[in-house]
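Regression test case RT-17, inverse folding.

Input:
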């Protein structure tokens, strides 16, 4: 194999659950249609990108009304242009009713982003060379920005920041998009790499502490910007499906050298699987395998008791 395989930070958890599923998606390229959770998640990322960059460049906050309207308009277009895979309960409820519910939820969570979460984040910036490659990071205080503007060609905020990093001469590239690296209004807290999400459930501390995505982005920040981040955060706008009760939760967490080393070992395992072209599956009774869209189709390992909408 001559071309390097892109290993998306957000896909590493999939490899841990089932290497074969990871291979079917990322090596063979079989893409199942997205579910509503993914469509809503992508729209929330776009909203956060616009709102945080406006805040950074113009010092303007997006209002809740604008955020909700933008998100609702955007997701209506997304839904019109995308085939969306429905969960069994969504099939039962009906495609139209599910669509209306998810548009409402997306709007409410966007309002929550604009009113509760985003105002407290102050994104850091990185210096970039003329090709847009990051040089190094600094805190984005107004004084620093002014100082930097006189000395370098450009600075950009670390907001929805895309990266593609060679991995120690191995057959992969680590790729992904960091949500943001920010300081907050709390003077006692340092810079944190933050993962923004929408959800129907409150996040748990366990989720933040064990998020491989946060660890992977932390490693990427070190490789790309030379930032030794130890502080991370999982920020969620929650909108329940039943009552559409909406609120935000931010959970902070830390990572140590041992966490980063464990993540590197997983990347090594991915390299091993690629080099040997060996991909084992997972337990046929696990919820992950029972709900796998490739089961009985691209993956012939388990062909019984397929649960599919
Ligand atoms: S059906 Fe099960 S074993 Fe096969 S790819 Fe999917 S999760 Fe993995």
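Golden output:
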């Amino acid at each position: 194999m001559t071309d390097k395989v892109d290993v998306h930070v957000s896909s590493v958890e999939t490899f841990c659950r089932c290497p074969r599923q990871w291979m079917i998606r990322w090596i063979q390229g079989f893409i199942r249609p997205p579910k509503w959770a993914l469509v809503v998640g992508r729209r929330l990322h776009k909203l956060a990108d616009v709102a945080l960059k406006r805040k950074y460049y113009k010092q303007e906050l997006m209002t809740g009304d604008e955020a909700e309207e933008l998100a609702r308009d955007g997701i209506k277009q997304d839904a019109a242009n995308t085939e969306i895979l429905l969960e069994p309960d969504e099939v039962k409820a009906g495609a139209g009713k599910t669509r209306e519910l998810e548009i409402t939820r997306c709007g409410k969570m966007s309002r929550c982003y604009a009113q509760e979460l985003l105002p407290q984040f102050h994104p850091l910036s990185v210096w970039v060379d003329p090709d847009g490659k990051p040089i190094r990071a600094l805190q984005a205080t107004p004084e620093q920005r002014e100082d930097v503007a006189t000395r370098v060609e450009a600075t950009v905020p670390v907001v929805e920041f895309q990266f593609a990093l060679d991995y120690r001469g191995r057959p992969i590239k680590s790729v992904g998009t960091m949500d943001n690296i920010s300081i907050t209004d709390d003077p006692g807290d340092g810079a944190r790499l933050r993962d923004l999400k929408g959800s129907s459930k409150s996040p748990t501390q366990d989720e933040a502490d064990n998020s491989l995505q946060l660890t992977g982005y932390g490693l990427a920040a070190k490789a790309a910007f030379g930032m030794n981040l130890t502080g991370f955060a999982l920020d969620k706008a929650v909108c329940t499906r039943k009552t559409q009760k909406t609120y935000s939760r931010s959970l902070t967490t830390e990572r140590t050298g041992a966490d980063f080393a464990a993540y590197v070992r997983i990347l090594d395992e991915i390299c091993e699987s690629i080099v040997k072209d060996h991909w084992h599956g997972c337990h046929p009774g696990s919820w992950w395998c029972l709900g796998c869209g490739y089961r009985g189709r691209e993956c012939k390992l388990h062909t019984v008791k397929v649960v599919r909408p």
